């Protein structure tokens, strides 16, 4: 039953380990991480995403699996707020519980394990992932901040409508959803990409996987965990195990089956995405805990992803 799981995960593990070694040896220092990240997200990822979607027709897409993912994520997000209260810290923790590293790890893993069919399902999710989760988190965080400001006399309330519109714009005009949308629109024209353009785009896309995974390893090597490792471990287990369990349950209730359900569950089992750390920095809350949680979640994913990918095969 698990014959394909280990061969799919091993290249991911080896490349992350290579990046970790490079980071520990300081072959790539902290100052170069931002530049490497820009290379991945502004050049390599758009090439891969555009080309992957440039032959996909709209009728091939199914939104029910994506709906199951977001319903489960919404329940987990709301449950976190209910337990921790309506404040900035709770909102950032809730985002960490639901926001997966679908690009840097997910694309490579799903491509290796589930092929082209799985990639179409994952890229449908990725095209909406940041738009839905980051925009929702921004609205909640801004409402929490507005509530804090309202408690201080003389403080001017922040314009929520402008904040929401800015969040929507930033989520759409982004190097991840934009090439997916552009590739999908190109596919509907029926045109074929000229080889002199298609070949360089293909080569750039092929570079994404190894470079992105090496980058994950470098980031792990440079990330301090410190005294937050216990709380970070709890946070990681919620993300890596509870999130996919909820997605599996909601997907099953909605009648999602086969590869679409499998990919959604595996996507939910992916470790915490780095954007959560950016939110913790922006709103100045739980930076150390989120940093440690991203690192612990990524390390634990080597075991938890294996477990989830084996168990998900038993779903009818």
UniProtKB/TrEMBL annotation:
GO biological process, one term: transmembrane transport
Organism in which the protein naturally occurs: Variovorax paradoxus
Membrane topology listed for this record: Multi-pass membrane protein
Predominant subcellular localization, coarse grouping: membrane
GO terms under cellular component: plasma membrane
Family of the protein in this entry: Belongs to the auxin efflux carrier (TC 2.A.69) family.
Domain of life: Bacteria
Keywords: Cell membrane, Membrane, Transmembrane, Transmembrane helix, Transport
Compartment list: Cell membrane
Name assigned to this protein: Putative transporter YfdV
Regions crossing the membrane: 6-23, 35-54, 66-83, 90-114, 120-146, 167-187, 207-225, 237-255, 261-280, 292-315
